[in-house]
Design goal:
mainly alpha
Length: 480
C-alpha cells in the first residue's frame, strides 16, 4: 500500500491514468492516516490518562475540560465499538468533535492571554529583583564586555533562522528605553514587509502582537480560571515604583503559582487537542478503510483499556489499568518506529491532495471522490502539527492584503497600544514593548545596526538593579 501511495502521487501530478490512480491514491492515503492516527491516539490517550490522574482534575477550574473529556470518551466509545459504520454515527461524531475543538480554541485563547500577561510581569519583577539583593555589580563588564559576548552569541550560528531567533531573544531582554514613537516606527516597518502577504497572514501577525502586548481580554478571562484571575489581579495592580521587599516576595510567589497553573493547564489542553485531532482523523478515514492491520488492532486494544478506566474513574470504581500494563507495554514497543515511518510517507505524498482538488475537480466529481479528497485535505490539517489549525480555508483571507489594508491594520494596532499605554506603569510599558518587539521580523539591516542597538539599550539604562538583572538573564541565554 505504501509503495502504491508513493507511485500514485507522482502519477497524479503527471495526470496519468486518473480513473485508476485517483481512487488508489486516496484509499492508500486514508489507510496510512488511519494507521497513524490509531498509533498516536493509543499512546497519547494513555499519557493523557496519566496526566489526568496526576493533575488537580477535581478543581472547579478543570470542570470544563472534564466535560469535554466526557464528550470525547463518548465519541471514542461510539467510534471504537461501532459494529458497522453508519452515516448517523459518522455525522454525530463529526459534529461532536467540531464542537469540542471550537470549545478548546476558545479556552486556549484565555490560557494564552494569561501566559502572555504573566510573562510581561515576570519581566517586570525580574527588573526590580536586584533592588533587594546586596550583590556587587561588575560595571566594567556591563559597559565593555557584554556587547561583545552578545554579538559573538548571535553570530556564532551560521543558520540565518537561528541567528534571527537569537536576535529576538536578546532584544526582548535588553533594557527597553525606546520612545513610544520609535516603538510605533518599528511596528510600521515590520508591517511594511507584509504588503504582498495574504490578508489572513496580516491578521494573524496583528493578532499575535496584540495578544503579546495585553491589548484585549478574551471572553471568559475573568471567570474561567478564578484562582489564577485573583492572583493575576494582585500582580497587575501592584505599585512597582514603590514596592517593598515583602511585597516583591509575595508577588513573585503569586506569579510562580499562577504561571505553573497556566503551564500545566496549557499542557493538558494541547495534549487533549491532539487526542481530538487523532480521533477526528479516525472518523474521517474510517469509512474508507477496509479491514484492520496488526498495529490497528493493537492500538484499538490500548484505547479500549484506557477508555474503560476513564469510565471507571468517572464512576469512582476501582481503576484497572495496572492489570493491563504488560500488554500495553508490549503494544507500545511494537509501535516503535512505525509512527515515524508512516509520517514520513504521508508527508512525502500529501501534496497530491491539493493538486487533485485544484486540477481534477471534474474527474473527482465523476468518480464520487470529491468528499474523500476534501476529507483528506482536512486530515492533512489535523495531522500537520499545528494543533489548533482551522480545517477549512477562509477564501477571503487568501486574497492579497495590499499596502492600504496593511497600513489600516497597523494603524489600528498602534492606536490600541497608544490607548493602553496611557494608564500603564512605565515599567510595565517597557516590558510590553520588549515582548512585542521580540515577535516582529528582525528590523536590523546589518551587523552594525545590531551592535548599535545593543550598545544604545545598555548605555541608556541607569538603573543598577535593572542592569544587573539584564546581565544575569542575558548570561543564561548565552549559556543555552
Amino acid at each position: 500500500q505504501r509503495q502504491m501511495c508513493i507511485r500514485d502521487s507522482g502519477e497524479l501530478a503527471k495526470g496519468r491514468n486518473l480513473q485508476v490512480n485517483l481512487p488508489a491514491y486516496a484509499n492508500s492515503m486514508m489507510s496510512l492516516y488511519n494507521g497513524l492516527a490509531y498509533i498516536k491516539l493509543s499512546m497519547n490517550y494513555y499519557t493523557f490518562f496519566e496526566m489526568a490522574n496526576d493533575s488537580e482534575f477535581g478543581k472547579a477550574e478543570m470542570s470544563e475540560l472534564k466535560g469535554l473529556l466526557d464528550r470525547f470518551n463518548d465519541v471514542a466509545e461510539s467510534q471504537i465499538a461501532a459494529a458497522e459504520y453508519s452515516d448517523d454515527i459518522y455525522k454525530h461524531n463529526i459534529d461532536e468533535l467540531e464542537g469540542i475543538r471550537a470549545s478548546v480554541v476558545r479556552i486556549m485563547e484565555v490560557v494564552t492571554a494569561y501566559v502572555d500577561r504573566l510573562r510581561i510581569y515576570e519581566y517586570v519583577l525580574n527588573r526590580i529583583e536586584y533592588r533587594f539583593k546586596d550583590e556587587e555589580f561588575d560595571d566594567a563588564y556591563y559597559n565593555n564586555g557584554l556587547t561583545n559576548d552578545l554579538m559573538h552569541y548571535i553570530l556564532s550560528d551560521k543558520d540565518s533562522v537561528a541567528v534571527n531567533n537569537r536576535i529576538s531573544e536578546v532584544v526582548e531582554q535588553l533594557p527597553m528605553r525606546l520612545s513610544k514613537n520609535k516603538f510605533y516606527e518599528y511596528l510600521r516597518d515590520s508591517f511594511s514587509l507584509y504588503k504582498d502577504a495574504q490578508i489572513g497572514t496580516v491578521d494573524d501577525f496583528a493578532y499575535t502582537l496584540g495578544t503579546t502586548g495585553m491589548l484585549a481580554e478574551p471572553e471568559g478571562f475573568e471567570d474561567m480560571f478564578p484562582e489564577v484571575s485573583e492572583l493575576y489581579n494582585d500582580i497587575r495592580s501592584a505599585d512597582y515604583k514603590n514596592i517593598s521587599k515583602e511585597q516583591f516576595d509575595s508577588l513573585h510567589a503569586k506569579l510562580t503559582i499562577a504561571a505553573q497553573k497556566m503551564s500545566d493547564t496549557a499542557d493538558m489542553y494541547v495534549m487533549f487537542t491532539q487526542l481530538v485531532n487523532d480521533m477526528y482523523t479516525l472518523v474521517l478515514s474510517g469509512r474508507y478503510v477496509l479491514g484492520d492491520v496488526e498495529e490497528t488492532i493493537r492500538a484499538r486494544g490500548v484505547i479500549e483499556v484506557v477508555l474503560d478506566d476513564f469510565k471507571n474513574k468517572k464512576d469512582n470504581a476501582k481503576l484497572g489499568i495496572d492489570e493491563h500494563l504488560d500488554d500495553l507495554t508490549d503494544s507500545f514497543i511494537s509501535f516503535e518506529g512505525k509512527q515515524e515511518r508512516i509520517g514520513e510517507t504521508v508527508s512525502a505524498n500529501d501534496y497530491a491532495v491539493a493538486y487533485a482538488l485544484e486540477h481534477y475537480r471534474s474527474e473527482l466529481a465523476a468518480d464520487n471522490l470529491t468528499d474523500e479528497y476534501e476529507n483528506l485535505a482536512k486530515i492533512i490539517r489535523l495531522q500537520s502539527g499545528s494543533d489548533f489549525m482551522a480545517l477549512t480555508e477562509d477564501e477571503a483571507k487568501l486574497e492579497n492584503a495590499g499596502k492600504d489594508y496593511v497600513e489600516k491594520v497597523c494603524g489600528r494596532l498602534i492606536d490600541s497600544f497608544a490607548a493602553s499605554f496611557e494608564t500603564m506603569d512605565r515599567t510595565v510599558r517597557r516590558a510590553v514593548m520588549s515582548a512585542v518587539l521580540s515577535q516582529v521580523p528582525v528590523f536590523f539591516n546589518n551587523i552594525d545596526e545590531i551592535q548599535g542597538y545593543i550598545n544604545t539599550s545598555l548605555s541608556l539604562c541607569s538603573d543598577i538593579s535593572e542592569r544587573q538583572a539584564c546581565v544575569e538573564v542575558l548570561k543564561l541565554i548565552m549559556q543555552g
